[in-house]
Design brief:
With 99 residues, the protein is mainly alpha-helical. It has six helices and two strands. Helix 2 (27-37) crosses helix 3 (39-46). The protein starts with 9 loop residues before the first helix and ends with a helix.
């Protein structure tokens, strides 16, 4: 199997997120997170905000569209904890959400 996806710069990754619907009021902060955490790890925090596919379009393990629900901002994603994900602390994120 050949891997066809090209490498994207952090700026291109940010563009990809915004084209999918993520609102980034502070692009500099989002770029910092992309560079420290990484796109794919960050994608796990974006996943709950992706649009759920209609039942008839769900196939195999694909339940969500690549598009992000309207009104979702970086602040929503960050509230799930990616800002602490790179610190190696697994406890602070859930505790921060409980406050």
């Amino acid at each position: 199997m050949e891997y066809n996806k090209p490498h994207l710069t952090f700026e291109q990754q940010l563009t990809k997120l915004t084209e999918r619907g993520l609102e980034c009021p502070n692009p500099k902060r989002t770029l910092q997170m992309l560079s420290s955490v990484g796109y794919y790890r960050l994608a796990a925090y974006v996943y709950p905000f992706r649009i759920l596919l209609p039942h008839e379009e769900q196939m195999g393990r694909r339940f969500r569209d690549d598009r992000i629900r309207p009104g979702t901002s970086w602040d929503h994603v960050e509230a799930l904890g990616p800002s602490t994900a790179h610190s190696g602390c697994c406890v602070s994120t859930p505790l921060r959400l409980l406050k």
